[in-house]
Amino acid sequence: MGGLTKPEGGRRMRLWVLVLAVAAAGVLRDVSVVFWKPGPLWTFRIDDRFSGLAGRLPPGERLGFVTDVQGDAAGSRYFDALYALSPRLLETGADHRLVVADLQDPVGLGALCSRRRLRVVARGGPGVALLEQE
After folding, report:
1. What's the confidence (pLDDT) of residue 24?
2. pTM confidence score
3. How far is CA 93 from the centre of its chain?
C-alpha cells in the first residue's frame, strides 16, 4: 500500500496546523497595525531630509556635525547624516569650516548659529541645515 500510515499523516497534519497558526498570527499583526495603531503611519527617506545640502558640499572636505539631542538619538542622527551625505566625511562637533546641523527643534537653529558663530548656507528638511563659520 502506497498511502501514509496514520501516525505519519497525523504528524504532517499537526505541522500544517502549526504553520497556518504562525502565518495567521503574522497577518493579524499586520492588520492590527494598519487599523488599530493610534496616530498616522508615516515614513520618510533619510536622503530627503538632507537633499537640499547635497549640491552645496565641496568634495573631499571634512564636515562637522551638530545636533540638539542627546544619547542614542544623537548617534542615530549622526549615522543618518553619514548615510545620506556619503561619501563625504562627517565628524562630530563644530570645529570645521562647514557644519551640518540636524536639529530636533528647528527653532533652535538661530541660537546655535549665534552661539557658535555660524551662518546658514543651505537648508534641507525640517531642522537640517548646512552652516559655515563666519
Report:
1. 86
2. 0.67
3. 20
